[in-house]
Structure formats: structure tokens, C-alpha cells
Amino acid sequence: MPDDGALPESALGAVGARGFGVYVHVPFCASRCGYCDFNTYTPAEGVVSDGYADVVLAELARAVDVLAGAPPPRVDTVFVGGGTPTLLSPAELGRILAGIDKAWGLAADAEVTTEANPESVDPAALRGLCSAGFTRISLGMQSAAPHVLAVLDRRHTPGRAAAAVAEARAAGFDHVNLDLIYGTPGESPEDFSASLGAVLGAGVDHVSAYALIVEDGTRLAARMRRGELPYPDDDVAADRYLAAEAALSAAGYAWYEVSNWALGPAARCRHNLLYWTGGDWWGLGPGAHSHVGGVRWWNLRHPNAYAARLAQGHTPAQAREVLTGEERHTEEVMLALRLASGLPLSTVDGAAAARARDGGLLDPDAYAAGRAVLTLRGRLLADAVVRDLL
Question: Can you give the pLDDT at residue 247?
Fold first, then answer.
């Protein structure tokens, strides 16, 4: 990676043609959940959040210089993730958002999301976030069952997520998401049904539901290796997914990506759609990934190393890659097939698509109209379908 972070002319020429977003990584957590392998740090690890907004704004200033030769991008979406972004004060998060607006300009209808743990926000903080310009909040509920939350090392009580939703609505958030994790050891069908009921009762307009993935190096993986907990079961995960689809669709939510449901198009997460449809974004913060015009790069992971590199006047990027045409096509198929809109049949292997249709994995009506769209069964086997179509 060039020391100044410069991008090739070919990447700068079409910045924002498919939309432009900004991701901000806030790597701080009060404690580490047993299943999490994200780039996060706790105070016990010698990483503190003091002055973090200034460091992010220093990277933003470099980003403005790098894109100075490109058509001025308009920021359609901002997503602040972590970690637990709301361990920073609303004022600090607002400073970062104001810096992005000053740098490139937020679109009048920009979607501005922050993630939060239910216990990391209160009514005053939520009002402050809305005043700062945040329009959407994504709360990590994971489950309504106390013993499931305990296995996941989640700190909030079962009812706290729904209470936080009500507080977010009262504060003025336009859109609220709840995240669920299913397939946790010890979770019964009744537990998951209760979690779905709690989500529907909370009145959110967006739901994300993900199967538990056991990552190497996590406490959860260590417990499973020691035989303290069983490994997740694929059949159980499939049953949970079918239960989620049944409950959510009956309540008026429509899937628009394999793991995401929304109450109408306006409730869909536009920032994630930008990722899934090949848009450009600049990732700020340690470990953050960026993509501009077929060039992808990622920052140094440790917050202290990231801050030191910026203090020395250098780019915080660790490495980058320029995607080949074949690599871009592969990624487009992998991501687009997970969307309810699917992708043109002309972009995939025709014989494999016909087999997938005949096997009940692709919707026959969409197929007749020239598109590859997953059926419910196809969504359960999405990764295998992608491999075949490529």
C-alpha cells in the first residue's frame, strides 16, 4: 500500500457510481462476549476510548485528500459498528458524524446507523444520538432466554432489549433493528419462539437473525473443545431459520437478504445493501475495510498501532488488493444471490441454474423472467447454490 494511501486513477474515476457510504469502527467493549471474534478490546487489554474521535477524524482528513481527484462523493449512508459504539458519548459520535458531513456532505435523506447493546443506552443517550443526526439504531438482543444469554456471555437482562426499542422510538429514531442469534447450545424451540415473540412485540421495523458460528480463539470454542457445551447442529439451525421466516412473514416482515427482514422497502438497511450491491465505502477505524472502484484495503487492527501510524503522518492501511474481473464477478454472485431481488441468469452458469430450479432451489417464476432468485429451501442452502452457479 502506498504510504500516502493513494488510489489508482481507475478506482477514482467512478467513485460513488453505485452509492457511497462510510463505515466507522468503534472497537471498544465493556466485556467480551464468549462467541465474538470481532476486532474489539476491553479496558483490561490496555485499550481506552479517550481521544478516539480525534483519531478517526485524522483518518478522515487523509481520506478526503485521497479522494480529492475523484468526483465529489455524496455520503448516502453511515454505519457506526463495533465493538459497542455507544460506549462513546453521543457528543463524540456526533463529532465524527459532523466531520463526515463536512468532509463530503451527507445526502439529505442519508441513513445514519449506530449499533448498540441494550444495556449501553438510556433515554438521554438515545435523544442525544438523534439530535446528532442518527436515524437508525441496531440493538443486539440475541435472545430472550436468560440461559441462552448466559451461554453467549451477554450482559443484558431478557427484557432490556424491548425496553431499549421503546426508548429509541420515543427518542425519535426512524428505524430500529433487533439482532437475533439462533442455534445456541441449550436453546429449545420454545426459547426461540419466545425470542421471536419478544421481537415482534417490541415493534421494530427490521430484524436480523443469524445462526451461531463458533469461531476459533473464542471462549465459546474453548468450552466446546473441552466438552462443556455441544457444537451447533445444522439441522437445528435450519429449523430455527424456518421458524423465523414463518413468524416474521406472518407478521408482515419480508426477507430482502437471507438473514434480514423488513417491514417494507423503507425499513431495509441501505448501508448493508450498498455492500451487497457493489457500492463504494470508506472504512474508518482500526481493522476497518474499505472498497473504492474495485480496490479493497484494510487498516491495522490494533487501536494503538492504528493511532500511532496516523500520528506519524502515514496511512493506517495495512494492505490492499485490486480485484480482478473474475474476483469481482464471483463476489457479485455471492452477494446478489442472497438478495430477494436475485441476479440475472445471464451472469451465472446456465446448466447449474436449471438444475437448481429443478431441485427447488431457485424460484421458477423468477427463472422464467430471467432471474436467479432463491426459494426458501434455496436460502437454507445458499452457499452450496452459489458454488454451483459459479
Answer: 98
Q: How many CA atoms lie within 13 A of 213 on its CB side?
A: 7
| List of residues 6+ apart from 390 with CB closer than 8 A | 330, 333, 334, 348, 349
Lowest mean pLDDT among 68-77, 187-196, 261-270: 68-77
Q: How far apart are CA 9 and CA 28, in angstroms?
A: 35
Q: Are 243 and 211 in contact (CB under 8 A)?
A: no
- Of residues 47, 59, 60, the one with CA closest to residue 87: 47
Q: Are strands 75-82 and 106-116 parallel, antiparallel or unpaired?
A: parallel
Q: Is the pTM of this model over 0.85?
A: yes
Give 42-80 pLDDT, tens digit per residue.
888 888 889 999 999 999 999 999 998 787 789 999 999
Distance CA 267, CA 126 (A): 19
Length of the chain, in residues: 390
Angle at 169 between CA 38 and CA 126, to 5 degrees: 55
What are 206's three cell numbers?
A: 427490521
Return the HEC string of the chain: CCCCCCCCHHHHCCCCCCCEEEEEEECECCCCCCCCCCCCECHHHCCCCCCHHHHHHHHHHHHHHHHHHCCCCCEEEEEEEECCHHHCCHHHHHHHHHHHHHHHCEEEEEEEEEEECHHHCCHHHHHHHHHHCCCEEEEEEECCCHHHHHHCCCCCCCCHHHHHHHHHHHHCCCEEEEEEEECCCCCCHHHHHHHHHHHHHHCCCEEEEEECCCCCCCHHHHHHHCCCCCCCCHHHHHHHHHHHHHHHHHCCCEEEECCEEECCHHHCCHHHHHHHCCCEEEEECCCCEEEECCEEEEECCCHHHHHHHHHCCCCCEEEEEECCHHHHHHHHHHHHCCECCCEEHHHCCHHHHHHHHHCCCECHHHHHCCEECECHHHHHCHHHHHHHHC
Does 138 have pLDDT greater than 80? yes
Q: Residue 43: what pLDDT?
A: 86
